[in-house]
Amino acid sequence: HSMASEQTSTRLPWKKPLCRSIDIRSSFRAGVFLRPSVYREASHTLTETAHSTPHQPIHRHRLPEMLSRLAARRPRPGSARAAAYRSSAAASSSVLPDALDRSSDAYARNAAAVGGLLSDLRSRVSQVLGGGGAGAVKRNEGRGKLLPRDRIDRLLDPGASFLELSQLAGSDVYEEALPSGGIITGIGPVHGRLCMFVANDPTTKGGTYYPITVKKHLRAQEIASECKLPCIYLVDSGGANLPKQAEVFPDRDNFGRIFYNQAKMSADGIPQIAVVLGSCTAGGAYIPAMADESIIVKGNGTIFLAGPPLVKAATGEEISAEDLGGASVHCKVSGVSDHFAQDERHGLALGRNIVKNLHLAAKETSIHNSACDYQEPLYDVQELRSIAPADTKQSFDIRSIIARIVDGSEFDEFKKLYGTTLVTGFARICGQPVGIIGNNGILFTESALKGTHFIELCAQRNIPLIFLQNISGFMVGSKSEASGIAKAGAKMVMAVSCSKVPKITIIVGGSFGAGNYGMCGRAYSPNFLFMWPTARISVMGGIQAAGVLAQIEKNNRKRQGVEV
């Protein structure tokens, strides 16, 4: 994890270590089990510790010590202390007596029968863990891909357990083998937050969707919706299985219901995250397109409604999969994906970063949270006075300001390669999570759409917004009008107007025209608005205003027949 984390860092190489902790009782209540050996030790003393141990998080490195202490307190079976414990328990009306006869024939028969069934179960599970077979696994690895369970393991917190669901789905259902129904689903923690994982298995029929695959995917979404679990989709699928399309496509609880559930959960504030690690074709392309945030991996990741063969058949165009719908296309041009990953490990590390930046409960984002430990910016705050030029016509990189106001100078940038004249991303200031929007030039259609998306994300996640204004307005001209600049700008203004999170606006340079509106000017009720000594506000810059007035005067004189 540490190497992958370094790849995603946008600051100096040193990274503040994360304090990871685990609360045993919370883990049991949530139904996410510890490793089997830990569970066996802890479960015997759960009732006792629930009443005698303060409800405090236990750091992961103290877990073995704590379990040893619990084991020492628990009476050993057959000991005098155990007999006394059972006698004491029987005397209490709240503790069930142990009526099990361990010496009976029934006890032995049951143990033998269950032992045989468990052996069969382990054998079946071992088979499905092999995926689509040795040949398919080898081809997958030859493309630089990880297996789906390895992908999940890299997203999980180190040492955490994964509660896999419906592991034997698809067993003996079809003539051909379909291990785990061609999809891996389950629950596990990422940065301490329980998430629902849905991972296509490309080694099983190319990750295509059979009827049982759809059913398993929908069941995972149902659990996520009921339990309010963020969904992480690890996408590597050829879409619906065409020979089974009559059972996969037309009905209510078929393939289309997946996207319906995504939309509903996103509207309910349940984060939807997609990591595109392979093919994402036809209807499957909507999984990352409808996600709140998505990542695509260079080389292997592709998103398109129709692949190169169908494009050639339909239009005659010959094009490669990468040029048609690869990472560069969707991160730099279309904006369908929000994060560009160099490889799978980088992509999965970015996925962990997204979960780290998800919304917190309202009480956690209160002012009291800012009292926690935090790191000062790595660069001298006093240098802020030397960054912004006195002449508002001169440009500068807004990241230089961000690096001097956020904790540890750490900034997780959002849609870095798209709409580059607007900088957006997540950071912390004095321990408080914030979303930052800063100008790096004039606003184009792409920049406005990017800003709208980011504002809506922060509003959904209850993250305060900080606007760093240095804006000359929206781009003008025939190309801009044809691209829908007016509509894109209106969407950004609407997002600013309707977001209910705290907003702070800091004008660090110019604030001209409608750019002032899109960047939360005074008319949009920021909680605070501050101006630097060099800041200027007006409908347009002085030179532009003089040019417009001169042109109006010239036109008036022409109409009056006065020589110009």
UniProtKB/TrEMBL annotation:
Pathway this chain belongs to: Amino-acid degradation; L-leucine degradation; (S)-3-hydroxy-3-methylglutaryl-CoA from 3-isovaleryl-CoA: step 2/3
Gene3D superfamilies, A to Z: 2-enoyl-CoA Hydratase, Chain A, domain 1
Domain CoA carboxyltransferase C-terminal: 376-564
Catalyzed chemical reaction(s): 3-methylbut-2-enoyl-CoA + hydrogencarbonate + ATP = 3-methyl-(2E)-glutaconyl-CoA + ADP + phosphate + H(+)
Entry's Gene Ontology molecular function annotations: ATP binding; methylcrotonoyl-CoA carboxylase activity
Record has Nucleotide-binding as a keyword: yes
Domain of life: Eukaryota
Span of domain CoA carboxyltransferase N-terminal: 114-370
GO cellular component terms listed in the entry, alphabetical order: methylcrotonoyl-CoA carboxylase complex; mitochondrion
Keyword ATP-binding: yes
Keywords from the UniProt entry: ATP-binding, Nucleotide-binding
PROSITE patterns listed in its UniProt record: COA_CT_CTER, COA_CT_NTER
InterPro entries: AcCoA_carboxyl_beta, ClpP/crotonase-like_dom_sf, COA_CT_C, COA_CT_N, MCCB/AccD1-like
One of the GO BP terms on file: L-leucine catabolic process
EC number(s) from the headed UniProt entry: 6.4.1.4
Protein name: methylcrotonoyl-CoA carboxylase
Organism in which the protein naturally occurs: Aegilops tauschii subsp. strangulata (Goatgrass)
Higher taxonomy: Eukaryota, Viridiplantae, Streptophyta, Embryophyta, Tracheophyta
